[in-house]
Design brief:
By secondary structure, the protein is α/β, with parallel strands linked by helices. Helices cover about 35% and strands about 20% of the residues. Bound molecules: pyridoxal-5'-phosphate. The site of pyridoxal-5'-phosphate has 15 residues, from helix 4.
């Protein structure tokens, strides 16, 4: 990194210049196996021919169009997203995850006359002021807390704690089906379903943040579809356009009809190239492909579970979102992986987060496990 960038990110000391399939290349020509897909974005890896071809095609037609004009590409994408998410309603396009959360929160607050919002401990929903209000953790909120919207945080995965904190004023609940940044935390079976039923009975708007877990990451289109839950609002982002900025808020018809014109807009939201890519991804992500994601994830998790080392606390995940919790030395392990030309990322306090592109092969998974095992046995 140079002296002109305000660098607020993890320092990797690595300059990446190119990508191909599941690999990234640095400025010295070294080849790195990508087990993080840019924090869950490049779900089909790099230089994907089908993606490149729709980019080129759209580039020479029109690549940007304000939302006040109609366009069949956006219409088609909205229709397909609603179908994939099994939702009857409307779609609003934005650019980033935090923007989707901001819009979702505004739509929800506007649609309820109840004043209390519930989010989860260890949650991550982004860092703009509204999204940050829903994001747990002093490290992100410190110094700005008093300017945030008041939100009650309950324990993720604990239905009793959720119910205990409900009041007649609870109007909005926000949840990730699997917590990503918080440490790849999976709730117990049926938790999401019960939580969604409670929200429905009590007329509470449920926002499901599928920004990291959606678009096939867990082997279903949405992670919440493993339990077939009902949501009023769904947020999508990250992998939606394989690297171009695109996010979406899906709102139920009941909410959609209430939102007044100009209540929320975005100059760049729904970029046409990004939307074309997203349509192509939806075509690629058929049932067979989703099944492959599930079985690759299962294969990787089972292989990791066979490693016998006291540093490992737990291996957990679903599909290709996987966390390796270690007792200590997380940073050192990540560094050693990088020295061995593998890129992974952190989550929570002590978790190594794996978000490989969906096109990862068995051979590449075996290579990852072999190197990881060597490292964990030697740190
Ligand atoms: C679950 C979840 N929600 C929201 C966000 C924020 O997305 P963005 O960084 O695109 O604003 C993230 C990003 O990591 C996320 O994982």
């Amino acid at each position: 990194m140079n002296n002109y960038i305000l660098n607020l990110y993890l320092e990797r000391n690595l300059e990446i210049v190119e990508g191909e399939n599941c690999y990234l290349f640095d400025d010295k020509g070294n080849k790195y196996l990508d087990f993080m897909s840019n924090y869950g974005v490049n779900i089909l890896g790099y230089k994907n021919k089908e993606i490149e071809s729709v980019i080129k095609d759209q580039l020479y037609k029109l690549f940007n169009l304000h939302g006040s004009f109609g366009n069949k590409i956006r219409d088609e994408l909205a229709k397909n997203l609603l179908e994939k998410c099994q939702m009857v309603g409307r779609v609003f396009f934005l650019n980033s995850g935090a923007e989707a959360i901001e819009a979702a929160l505004k739509f929800a607050i506007y649609s309820t006359n109840k004043k209390e919002i519930i989010s989860m401990k260890n949650s991550y929903h982004g860092k703009t002021l509204g999204a940050l209000s829903l994001t747990f953790g002093e490290k992100y909120r410190k110094g700005i807390e008093e300017f945030l919207i008041k939100v009650k945080f309950v324990e993720f995965g604990n239905l009793a704690d959720f119910e205990r904190n409900l009041t007649k004023n609870t109007g909005v609940v926000v949840i990730e089906p699997i917590q990503g940044d918080g440490g790849i935390n999976l709730p117990p079976d049926n938790y999401l379903k019960s939580l969604s039923e409670i929200c429905r009975e009590r007329n509470i708007i449920l926002i499901v943040d599928e920004i990291q877990t959606g678009f096939g990451r867990t082997g279903k289109f949405l992670a919440s579809q493993h339990e077939n839950i009902y949501s009023d609002i769904i947020c999508l982002g990250k992998g939606m356009a394989n690297g171009l900025p695109l996010s979406a808020v899906l709102v139920s018809e009941k909410i959609a009809i209430r939102i007044p014109k100009f209540f929320h807009t975005s100059t760049f939201g729904g970029n046409l190239i990004a939307c074309r890519i997203s349509l192509k991804i939806l075509e690629i992500l058929d049932d067979n492909f989703l099944e492959e994601i599930k079985s690759k994830g299962h294969y990787l998790i089972e292989k990791l579970k066979k490693i016998n080392n006291d540093l490992i606390v737990e291996i957990r995940g679903k599909g290709l979102i996987i966390g390796i919790e270690v007792k200590e030395k997380r940073t050192e392990i990540l560094k050693r992986l990088q020295e061995n030309f593998i890129l992974a990322i952190p989550a929570g306090e002590n978790v190594i987060r794996l978000l490989p592109p969906y096109i990862i092969s068995e051979k590449e998974i075996n290579h990852f496990v072999e190197i990881f095992q060597k490292i964990i046995n030697s740190v």
